[in-house]
Structures are given as C-alpha cells and as structure tokens.
Amino acid sequence: MQVVRSAQELKNAKKNLSGTVGFVPTMGALHDGHISLIKRARQENDIVIVSIFVNPTQFLEGEDLDKYPRRDEADKKICELAGVDILFMPTIDSMYNQDELKISAPKVRGYILEGAKRPGHFDGVLQVVLKLLNITTPTRAYFGKKDAQQLALITQMAKDYFLDTEIVPCEIVRDSDGLALSSRNVYLSEDERKRALSLSRSLKLASDMVAKGELNCKKIKGQMRQELLKNVDKLDYVAIVNREFKEIDKVEIGNSIILAAAFVGTTRLIDNIWL
Ligand code: AMP
Q1: Average pLDDT for residues 28-53, to the nearest whole number?
Q2: What single-letter DSSP state applies at residue 102?
C-alpha cells in the first residue's frame, strides 16, 4: 500500500496502476462501517483508493473539528489489511487555496434536515468530494446510506456535473445492539450510549408500524418522537422523505427513508432506515 499526501503524489502513484478504480472517501477513525465500503470496493474493482481527510470546510463554527477522533496509525493498518492500494491522506494546505471557486449545495435539498440544522455543511461536503473525485477519477465511489442526504446530494452532483464516476450506495453497518457505527460514537459515555440506542429503536418502531400496515407519516413520526424524547437531550428532527428527499405524508414502500437526528449529551447522532 502506498501512502500519499498530495494530489500530485496521488496522480503519480496512479500512473503505475491500471484497471478499474474503486474509491472510498472517509474522515478516518475507521470502523466496520468504513471497512464494509472498502471491502465492497475491493470486490468490485482492480484498484482501491481510500482517502482520510478531516475536511475543515464541512464543519460549522463551534462543531467538533478540533476534537474529531484521529487514529492515523491504526487506520493505516486497517487499510493495509483490507487490501487498499493507495491511501490518500492529504494535508489541508495541499487541498485548499485562498479565495477559491466554490460549489454550492442545491437551495432546497441542500438546506432541509441536515442542511437546515447545519447550514453550509453540504457546501463543504460537495466541495471536498468534487476535489477528491477529480483527483482520484474513480470508476466507482462508495458512500454509506448512513449519511442519506449526503449520498443523495453527491449522487445529484455526479449527475449535474456529468462526472464519470458511478456513485454506489452502501448499507448501514450497526453494532449488535442496533447502534449505527459512527466515528463519533467514541464521544459517548456508558449512559449516553444506552440512550443513543433510542435512535435505532425509534426507527425499528417505525418499520414495525409500517410492517403492520400503518403508512401515515404523522402517526409514525409521533411514535418515534415519543421514544426519542424520553432518551435524547435534544431532538433535531424526525422526518420521512421519498428517495428524492421530498417530505411525504404517506410511506411509499420501496421509495421511503425515515430519518432521525438528535443530541445525546453533546454528541450529535444521525440514523435512518430505507423502506
Ligand atoms: P465519515 O468518515 O464519517 O465521513 O464516513 C465515510 C463514509 O463511510 C461515508 O460514506 C459514510 O456514509 C460511511 N459510513 C459511516 N458510518 C457508516 C456505517 N455505520 N455504515 C455504513 N457506512 C458508513
């Protein structure tokens, strides 16, 4: 595995390799969710590139940029074991210029739900993902459904900007108790971790209601809110959208995503289920 630190180094490293390229962008502190993306990329491509970059432009003022977990040495070992060919760990200076041209998230889909709670977040996400896709020029890029709105916006960017990369959605990996894996889970105390389980529990409750024939989104969201409000410290939102990310009144089986976002302690968690 080659570890490279700038776009130029990555382009040089790629020159010696041929075949299809699978790319997995991450912010590091790798867990089994990331590893599932890397394994899928390994199965489906000749070359696998992983990036680890804690992108400052997607963090808002007052968010956890400074304390975001960094585990570079452990992450390198994980990538090596997972058969990664090139690990791209760029410096901030090599990625950004002063007063550079910016890409903006779409005014509607980019500014609801996560975008409403974290205005500007998706501008930063799309900016860095576009850079990373241009540097790595992958055949396929792998993204988790855990960040459902991010996945929808990146898929839209690939379409709107005629990118040559297939955006591959990947299933959410959970701990045995149901908690969706996240690099931020390390922030949780024992008590907070227990209370954090109310996110996946509320989504299970919702899918059980749907399985019993309840399609009314208002009723489903009401039940979810009850479960969440007993446990979390601040509920950001509960929402039911279609795969186009438009809020819906009635669950459409095969075309719906149910989402929740909440603070447990000072940790902000998101989770969702695709029905
Ligand atoms: P991050 O390092 O949090 O930016 O995540 C990098 C990629 O891993 C994103 O595409 C995430 O959606 C994906 N990811 C994060 N957590 C999970 C999970 N529990 N299951 C599947 N994919 C995940």
Answers
A1: 98
A2: -
